[in-house]
Amino acid sequence: MQSVYNLSRSMLLLLSCIFATLAAATLEVRLTSPTRIYLTNAKGDLHIPANSAVYKKGKEGHFSIARTFTIELPAGQYTLTAEKGPEYEPFRTQFTLAESQTLAIEPTLPHRIPMNRRGWYSADLHNHRKLEDMPLLLLTEDLNFAPTLTDWIWEGRPNSTPPANLAPIQRIDATHSFTTIDKEIERLMHGPGAIDLIGLKATIPFEGDWLYPPNSHFAALAHKQGAYVDAEKIMWRDVPALVALGHIDFAGVVHNHFNRHAVLLETDRWGMAPKDKPEYRTPEGMALWTLDIYYRLLNCGFHLPVSAGSASGVMPSPIGYNRVYAHLDSPFTVPAFLAAMKQGRSFATNGPMLFLTLDGKHPGDTIALTTGRKLTGRIDVETTGTLDRIELIHNGRIINTSSHSFSFEFATNTAGWITARAFEKNTPSPRYAQSSPIYLTKTGQSAVNPEDARYFIQWLEREAAMYRAETRFRSAKHRQAMVDFFEQALAVYRKLAAQPPASNPRP
Length: 507
Fold this sequence. Notes:
Mean pLDDT: 93
Radius of gyration: 26 Å
Oligomer: single chain
Distance between the termini: 92 Å
């Protein structure tokens, strides 16, 4: 009797497997290039085929895949979204699969804004994805360059270590490359902040702790190699000091507090500057706060290009969600791209493509002002989203606003800078772009606004006082080194604040 029962049970299991196989539906997704895919059922569960790079972080769940794939799915309702970065129009469809049905879908993602053809190349400077996935990920997002922060110091200790025996630059094809031994030194809360060392030729050892040494130490070692230093968020407590002392090559104004789903508004506990206006405590206010700090640094006379990064691998965004574009007059290479970044021929974005010209000059260039001279310029914005507004900024003031691309005339006798920004609308997280400045000079006139220098004096005096009282230093010598770092920067800002008032002080 038991043997008959076991046989019957086995037959039932076999029959259930056969019927389940018969009941399953088959989906074939035909792709023409590597693509990021969101394939979810009615409950929002992600379905993943073989041979894909899967990413799940918070609300973000997707896979990147190089080619056409086939997957068996239970009967039911599904949504498929295909994306390929901000230059491409996304594809989205909803469909119902019946039992045993076979369905083929061919996503179309028109390349609406072909940036490489115009000499513009993209990078995500803050990336924690796996090295082995990088070739697929860059081609999926059509992202030209990404440093891979394999050498990551987190709160004073190594969180990851770089690979051995790998060339620093890995070339995928003529327009896509990544680097392998880039370093992030991230010491938050009571630490100085975070910097990324980009384009290193050799590893830089971390000899220190959560508080010591100042980030200027590591920045100097990176520059000695010919590498670059990115202030990955412009709001860290030590950024104004690093900028004043010449340690920063570009600064993050579209950063990883903006992800595909939301904005991280918490800043104080991470060791960032206080938000000094109530309007900064909103999602769009987070972007405006970031940009206002950036404008204040420009108003102190510093030439500071923009950068951008997503922290994919840590944050709920695909790689390349936040990216910076640099314009090259030569074929793409990593050294040429980083040199263009340093020059400031760039804009940072997580949506709009932003192009600024003034009297034939571009971001990173300088124009010498003469009395009575009227300048002509143009701002063009292209986006696969919905544009809200474009703003022209002179020395921190909005001087022109439009809902579409526009030409303008501009006359000023005031040295300083001019830049542009653009915002999309109807997005859960601000989608915006910010260009690097075009600099304006006038004989015998300073470009410094002492009011903004005083703002950073208050900032750095607050930080120096905090470190004087800090009890967690390993030695008094270490404490004094950090205090001295801030005092050296304070000397720069005090000198700037002593200059005559600017003719157009900020409101």
